[in-house]
Specification:
One of its GO terms (cellular component) is extracellular region. The chain is an alpha/beta fold. Helices cover 41% and strands 22% of the residues. Strands 7, 8, 9, 10, 11 and 12 form a 6-stranded mixed β-sheet that branches.
């Protein structure tokens, strides 16, 4: 039998394509290599950080603006690695353990309400900013607390492990205020302490405070008040010194923002009814967020 001769050009194209695929596979490093080998990505999520990342009690699934961002990054990873059936595992985390879980490899990506700061960048890597917020006080209207100066002689609650906790402790120390600061394990516990009068105020991101009021039966008794204290650049967190993975994450976030997809997502979570009860935050897109969407970046506000 006479063998059919394969054109030299076809052979060259075949071997070049194979070499290209092999090189691409060999070039993988860090988190992408780990995901490719394990065929699974592990996401860290927050259980009660409405509307960023929280459990929808009607479906028992994780939802939210930042969690949706994480899932879009997962889609980009599937395409990049050629893994359409990539398994997604989700692990609940807290503000206290999120950094250590990234560092020890327990989770691969965390997109919740983590603020990009210089201190954190010494421990982990932070993506392009996906949202910008500010910190304020949540108080009972009858508390007499209208601004930070009114906290003298009172108790304020903060979420443990948050930048808000660090800022409040520094503020009280620098102002020589006799303010008692207590740390709650999460936002829900902090709000419960405020409701039960164990604290006169809760200091946290304005979006989180507004979202907590949506679920409160006595919401009319409270007010988000005081001059904003800090500007927060919220970002996804990943392992340090992994430029390949960070580049993919940043590219995905930037594409969301410049294409208009991020604004549609924002309106869905901040201006429309959200699960489980169809509450509406009614928080219009800020000028700072519009600027971010037009010019994606990974800058923090403490530089």
């Amino acid at each position: 039998m006479k063998l059919k001769k394969i054109p030299t050009t076809a052979l060259v194209i075949f071997f070049c394509s194979m070499l290209g695929w092999t090189a691409q596979a060999a070039d993988l490093s860090g988190t992408l290599k780990k995901i490719k080998n394990d065929k699974v990505i592990v996401l860290g999520y927050r259980e009660s950080s409405v509307p960023w990342s929280y459990i929808d009690s009607s479906t028992n699934k994780v939802v939210g603006y930042s969690h949706e961002t994480a899932l879009l990054i997962v889609d980009a990873i599937k395409q990049e690695l050629g893994l359409p059936d990539l398994q997604v595992r989700e692990i609940p985390i807290t503000a206290q353990n999120r950094i250590s879980l990234i560092q020890n490899g327990s989770i691969d990506l965390e997109c919740n309400g983590t603020t990009n700061t210089a201190e954190r960048r010494r421990q982990v890597a932070l993506s392009d900013t996906f949202a910008i917020t500010q910190t304020q006080l949540l108080t009972k209207k009858s508390s007499g607390v209208h601004d930070m100066s009114d906290l003298a002689g009172k108790t304020v609650v903060v979420t443990a492990g948050s930048t808000s906790e660090r800022y409040m402790r520094t503020y009280v120390q620098q102002k020589h205020m006799d303010t008692n600061i207590v740390s709650a394990k999460d936002h829900s516990q902090a709000f419960l302490m405020l409701q039960s009068d164990r604290a006169a105020a809760f200091f946290m991101d304005r979006d989180v405070l507004s979202a907590l009021l949506l679920k409160a039966r006595d919401a009319a008794d409270y007010v988000v008040t005081g001059r904003p204290q800090t500007k927060e650049a919220l970002a996804c967190m990943l392992r340090k010194d992994d430029p390949q993975f960070k580049a993919l994450v940043d590219k995905t976030i930037a594409a969301m923002q410049t294409s208009g997809k991020a604004e549609k997502m924002y309106n869905r979570w901040f201006m429309s009814p959200i699960p489980p009860k169809g509450d509406v935050l009614n928080a219009p897109l800020s000028d700072a967020m519009r600027e971010l969407y037009a010019h994606p970046n990974d800058r923090s506000f403490d530089e």
